[in-house]
Design goal:
elongated; 6 helices; 9 strands; two-stranded antiparallel ribbon
Length: about 210
């Protein structure tokens, strides 16, 4: 078991982490496709190449994910993209022999080597440098067999977006009509190519104006 001092230190670090992350990243609320684009500093499609876990120098537990980029919509200019998300998959024995019992917070994405996903990522946290998907399960869409779907079965993904339907192709209009369920991955990627350019990224001059 962790001793009291270690628990106290971890609690303080976690409080700092929560302050460093945006409010949107520490709570889950329904997100539509426009929300995902608008809150994302980085948007990419890729295959997970590696998943490792550990503790940062400040004692914060993390899961490090490296993705081989298949398609990029915003940021992620290199062949691979690596980020660290808060938390571990489960208990972990420390070098001291003590056991860290904390896992990943409920609702946060899980990662598996070989999976292909479309990722919408918040800006990195100011204090910790950690990064996770926008809306947690909303901002990670698994891709396979030509379709894309998130942890919430895409429920509300295309609802109340304010998008002018006259700017959408016939395929995109059908996609926006979906209430839930997998959507055509190619159609979604074509829409995102345009939307990510038209809508300003967080922290950009256009976004702040």
């Amino acid at each position: 078991m962790l001793n009291f001092q270690w628990r106290k230190r971890l609690a303080a670090l976690l409080a700092g982490f929560c302050i460093g992350m945006s409010a949107q990243a520490t709570t889950v609320r329904p997100m539509n496709i426009v929300d995902l684009v608008d809150y994302s500093e980085t948007i990419l499609a890729g295959r997970v190449e590696s998943v490792t876990e550990g503790f940062a120098a400040n004692g914060m537990p993390y899961t490090e994910v490296t993705v081989r980029v298949i398609d990029r919509f915003r940021g992620a200019d290199a062949e691979r993209y690596t980020f660290r998300q808060f938390g571990l998959t489960g208990p972990r024995t420390l070098p001291s022999g003590k056991v860290y019992l904390g896992g990943r917070p409920e609702g946060w994405p899980n990662w598996t080597v070989g999976e292909v996903s479309l990722l919408f990522l918040y800006p990195r946290a100011r204090v910790t440098g950690f990064q996770t998907t926008v809306g947690l399960g909303y901002g990670k869409l698994g891709m396979g067999n030509g379709v894309a779907v998130n942890a919430y079965d895409n429920a509300g993904l295309f609802a109340n977006t304010g998008i002018d339907r006259s700017t959408l192709s016939a395929e995109e209009q059908r996609m926006f009509d979906a209430k839930n369920g997998p959507v055509n991955a190619g159609t979604l990627r074509k829409f995102l190519k345009r939307a990510a350019k038209e809508r300003p990224a967080p922290g950009s001059a256009r976004h702040d104006n």
